[in-house]
Specification:
The chain has 97 residues and is α+β, with helices and mostly antiparallel strands. It is 10% helix and 16% strand. The longest helix has 10 residues, at 77-86.
Length: 97
């Protein structure tokens, strides 16, 4: 098994704010070449001007102009992901992190 190394990019750190209970972690995506994405938090710490996901702030009462300034973790990530990975699926899935 390959050794896991720390990512070269800075990791997002959770903002002070709400912690969410996830209903799902694996989400179908239309990103070319991927089938599902792992969504462990709400928000973003980068705020790229071209981001397609900036509209997601409305789900937590944040404006588009605040995108990139908050990250709210999903508290039950491990349990939900474990449950979802046990669920039978057809074939393989390409996962976007």
């Amino acid at each position: 098994m390959p050794e896991l190394r720390q990512a070269a990019l800075p990791l997002a750190s959770p903002s002070r704010g709400p912690v969410f209970t996830a209903r799902s972690i694996l989400v179908r995506t239309k990103i070319p070449g991927m089938d599902v994405a792992i969504n462990p938090y709400v928000g973003c710490s980068y705020g790229c001007g071209y981001c397609y996901a900036a509209f997601m702030g409305r789900s937590v009462g944040r404006g588009r102009d605040e995108w990139g300034r908050y990250v709210y973790p999903k508290e039950n990530l491990r349990a939900v992901l474990r449950r979802e990975l046990r669920r039978p699926r057809n074939g393989r899935a390409r996962i976007f992190f």
